[in-house]
Design brief:
elongated; alpha+beta; about 375 residues; Cyclic Phosphodiesterase, Chain: A
């Protein structure tokens, strides 16, 4: 009965995927992962389970807006960049996915060989067939992106001396007054040099995607930040503690909240995330960004302060929750500091390198206030 209910729920509520501002419904997607990075034999999509029902989406004019090249033989061509990590997913097991796409769209799809970078090319006798094939390729690529581990995140560094000192004092008090509670020890705490507010996380799969993200964040300074803050820094009060779940006795993440200044910051964060989603560089997880400064995280016990778990990692295996009730009772209203944030970073995850101040290594630093 449960399997039957799940079957009907999969039909009635299929997974949604946003690409270039268009929402697609996914049907029959096999979510197996691959350990390889290319080749015709990648075990990614089963031959009989790679259905993408996209016909309804092509009534949308935006879906037919590709700039196609007309060849001398009268056929149409589109060539677009995709990171090579997605090639196995497009090819499928024994090339079944690629063959199926070609057959159903009456096109020829050319994908660079294993180990090579380059554009994916679609050629066909009809514009609609080429457009349809490319959009289905994007669906497969963006779905497989959701399986990749995060590589970068947009962060607001909170490395102010007063804030760090307040955090260190709170850490000392918690370890002294609350260490008898289940699971509480020093390994749970964020490093004071790495305190930050997280805006959004993403998986950038090659150098071109990283550059696209850098360019977009630079553009957002003028198009999003300036209309909200002008030439002023982000003015915030960090005050109060909260947990990520509903049970304070069984917590994995304890974080500090933003007090005054939250309304403007929330507007900025939501607009930034929307912009990166529209560009295909980030996936929507929540309706609104959860703005937080992590204080304690059970994943820190074994992941060297990696805040965002690997997507294929069993979190229950490495995370041991803790009892936050005494912390919330004693320090729930803790005031940290009043800070002004002058930079926004595209920070690298899991990089062994750090800045000279031991903060996350940035791919780009955007100054928010011009001299």
């Amino acid at each position: 009965m449960q399997r039957l209910e799940k079957f009907f729920m999969d039909i009635l509520r299929p997974p949604l995927l946003w690409i270039d501002g268009i929402c697609y419904r996914q049907y029959g997607l096999n979510r197996e992962t691959t350990s390889g990075h290319g080749g015709d034999t990648a075990d990614v999509f089963d031959e009989d389970d790679s259905n993408f029902n996209l016909d309804e989406d092509f009534n949308n004019p935006e879906a037919d807006s590709l700039l196609l090249e007309t060849l001398d033989n009268g056929k149409f061509k589109y060539s677009g960049h995709l990171p090579s990590v997605f090639f196995p997913y497009i090819i499928g097991k024994k090339a079944a996915t690629k063959k199926r796409l070609e057959m159903e769209t009456n096109t020829k799809i050319t994908i660079p060989r294993q180990g090579q970078e380059g554009n994916v090319t679609v050629i066909g006798p009809e514009k609609r067939g080429v457009t349809r094939a490319w959009n289905r390729i994007l669906i497969i690529a963006e779905s497989s992106r959701s399986k990749q581990d995060f590589t970068h995140f947009i962060s607001l560094p909170l490395t102010h001396p007063e804030l760090k000192a307040s955090f260190v004092e709170l850490k000392r008090d918690i370890l002294r007054e609350c260490s008898d509670a289940r699971g509480i020890d020093e390994s749970l705490f964020q490093a004071p040099e790495m305190l930050h507010l997280t805006i959004g996380v993403m998986a950038l799969m090659d150098a071109q995607e990283r550059q696209n993200a850098i360019d977009l964040l630079e553009d957002c300074k003028e198009t999003i930040y300036a209309p909200i803050y002008g030439n002023n820094p982000i003015d915030l009060e960090i005050k109060g503690l909260e947990i990520m779940n509903d049970d304070p006795s069984d917590v994995n993440v304890l974080y500090a909240k933003v007090g005054s200044g939250l309304e403007k910051l929330q507007q900025l964060a939501d607009k930034l995330v929307d912009c990166f989603i529209d560009a295909g560089l980030m996936s929507r997880k929540y309706d609104q960004v959860k703005i937080h400064m992590t204080i304690m995280n059970s994943s820190y016990r074994s992941n060297d302060h990696v805040e965002f778990m690997d997507k294929n990692q069993d979190s229950s295996r490495d995370q041991q929750s803790f009892d936050a009730r005494p912390i919330m009772k004693k320090y729930g209203d803790n005031f940290f500091a009043h800070v002004k944030v002058n930079e926004i970073h595209l920070s690298q995850l899991r990089s062994e390198r750090r800045t000279s101040d031991n903060y996350y290594m940035p791919s780009v630093v955007i100054p928010l206030v011009c001299c």
